[in-house]
TrEMBL record:
<protein>
    <recommendedName>
        <fullName>Phosphoserine aminotransferase</fullName>
        <ecNumber>2.6.1.52</ecNumber>
    </recommendedName>
</protein>
<feature type="modified residue" description="N6-(pyridoxal phosphate)lysine">
    <location>
        <position position="195"/>
    </location>
</feature>
<feature type="binding site">
    <location>
        <begin position="76"/>
        <end position="77"/>
    </location>
    <ligand>
        <name>pyridoxal 5'-phosphate</name>
    </ligand>
</feature>
<comment type="similarity">
    <text>Belongs to the class-V pyridoxal-phosphate-dependent aminotransferase family. SerC subfamily.</text>
</comment>
<keyword id="KW-0718">Serine biosynthesis</keyword>
<feature type="binding site">
    <location>
        <position position="171"/>
    </location>
    <ligand>
        <name>pyridoxal 5'-phosphate</name>
    </ligand>
</feature>
<comment type="function">
    <text>Catalyzes the reversible conversion of 3-phosphohydroxypyruvate to phosphoserine and of 3-hydroxy-2-oxo-4-phosphonooxybutanoate to phosphohydroxythreonine.</text>
</comment>
<dbReference type="InterPro" id="IPR015422">
    <property type="entry name" value="PyrdxlP-dep_Trfase_small"/>
</dbReference>
<dbReference type="GO" id="GO:0004648">
    <property type="term" value="F:O-phospho-L-serine:2-oxoglutarate aminotransferase activity"/>
</dbReference>
<dbReference type="InterPro" id="IPR022278">
    <property type="entry name" value="Pser_aminoTfrase"/>
</dbReference>
<feature type="binding site">
    <location>
        <position position="151"/>
    </location>
    <ligand>
        <name>pyridoxal 5'-phosphate</name>
    </ligand>
</feature>
<feature type="binding site">
    <location>
        <position position="194"/>
    </location>
    <ligand>
        <name>pyridoxal 5'-phosphate</name>
    </ligand>
</feature>
<keyword id="KW-0663">Pyridoxal phosphate</keyword>
<feature type="domain" description="Aminotransferase class V">
    <location>
        <begin position="4"/>
        <end position="350"/>
    </location>
</feature>
<dbReference type="InterPro" id="IPR015424">
    <property type="entry name" value="PyrdxlP-dep_Trfase"/>
</dbReference>
<feature type="binding site">
    <location>
        <position position="42"/>
    </location>
    <ligand>
        <name>L-glutamate</name>
    </ligand>
</feature>
<keyword id="KW-0808">Transferase</keyword>
């Protein structure tokens, strides 16, 4: 059996050590005589799994005690609705539109209240992060919303917006745990785990407690399952959680701790991304599509400028074991997603392959 180098944007590569451990525990988890998929979410084994996962995440991110950690379902996309439903007390929110995910969140919020776009980079196919130092934030805004790492376009905020004292809400799906963050700068940090943490089916929401509305404060029509309070009061066990996914996330948290935590991850990710960006900057054939100062460490889109050549590259790369490099249809070309679990040698070998391809097709 041979594993490929998987550059998928998501669901994406997971650490091999984690997959092997999960395989070894598949038939008998910790003496239970069953797999984690088969056990009650109220069992002592699962209780331990979810508690440990939460604690390890708290340790990794330095999450203060006044923040709740929720393991939910519905993906990041369900948060596009839950956020306005729970946070729009004044009915106003400001959105910064840096790509399709931010735009989808914005459109969802508009269904619920007065959502306004206060900045956008749509004019240049979202290839940069707009100036967010002095935005026209509404006095009544309940929150300011960003998508911190734009999976499709390959941009990342390297400075958070000046929210003028308003609560910051951030979708970190594709940069979750890729580097240290200061949780206290945010009201909500959330993300689907299938990009940089675990299997699809889990979304993690880190929310400051005072933002969770009580049943008196929230619109009575908001369904029980879409209230943060429901999940917060029940430690993510109001109903059956995505148990196997949480178990794998827990293993990834341990793996990250073993690697030295998020500082070490940042160093690893910077080193890894630099190999690819340096080559893109010197190549005569391949070009990065993002302005340099806003580049993501996780998603790297690039093009040759010639659609046929792009297609030829993707085809030959796939045959050579570098898979899922085709770019998003709105950007074209290629995209290499190089999440935490992508080893440095995966990027080194990809660049070697690109150099060879450039020489052969010059
Ligand atoms: C993938 C992605 C989403 C959508 O995630 P789902 O879990 O499929 O709903 C939202 N935001 C970002 C930044 C993403 O990368």
């Amino acid at each position: 059996m041979s594993r490929v180098y998987n550059f998928s944007a998501g669901p994406a590569v997971l650490p091999e050590e984690v997959l092997k451990e999960a395989a070894a525990e598949m038939l008998d988890y910790n003496g239970s005589g069953m797999s984690v998929m088969e056990m009650s979410h109220r069992s002592k084994w699962f209780e331990e799994i979810i508690k440990t996962a939460e604690q390890d995440l708290r340790d990794l991110m330095n999450i203060p005690d006044n923040y709740k950690v929720l393991f939910l379902q519905g993906g990041a996309s369900q948060q596009f609705a839950m956020i306005p439903m729970n946070l729009m007390k004044n009915g106003v929110a400001d959105y910064i539109i840096t790509g399709q995910w931010a735009k989808k969140a914005f459109n969802e919020a508009k269904k619920y209240g007065n959502a306004k776009a206060v900045a956008s980079s749509e004019d240049k196919t979202y290839s940069y992060i707009p100036d967010v130092s002095d935005l026209n934030i509404d006095d009544d805004a309940d929150y300011v919303y960003i998508c911190e790492n734009n999976t499709i376009y390959g941009t990342k905020y390297h400075t958070l917006p000046n929210t003028k004292g308003k609560t910051l809400v951030s979708d970190v799906s594709s940069c979750f745990l890729s580097e240290p963050v200061d949780v206290e700068k945010y009201g909500i940090i959330y993300g689907g785990v299938q990009k940089n943490i675990g299997p699809a089916g889990v979304v993690i929401v880190i929310i400051r407690e005072d933002l969770i509305p009580s049943d008196d404060e929230i619109d009575e029509k908001v369904p029980t399952m879409l209230r943060y309070k429901t999940h917060s009061d029940n430690d993510s066990l109001f109903n059956t959680p995505p148990a196997y996914g949480i178990y794998i996330c827990g293993k990834v948290f341990k793996w990250l701790k073993g690697k030295g935590g998020l500082e070490a991850m940042k160093e690893h990710n910077e080193k890894k991304a630099k190999i690819l960006y340096d080559y893109l900057d010197e190549s005569k054939m391949f070009k990065g599509t993002v302005v340099k100062e806003d580049r993501s460490l996780m998603n790297v889109p690039f093009v040759t400028g010639d659609k046929e050549l792009d297609a030829k590259f993707v085809e030959e790369a796939t045959k050579a074991g570098f898979v899922n490099l085709k770019g998003h249809r709105t950007v074209g070309g290629m995209r290499a997603s190089i999440y935490n679990a992508m080893p440095i040698e995966g990027v080194e070998k990809l660049v070697e392959f690109m150099k060879k391809f450039e020489k052969e097709n010059a």
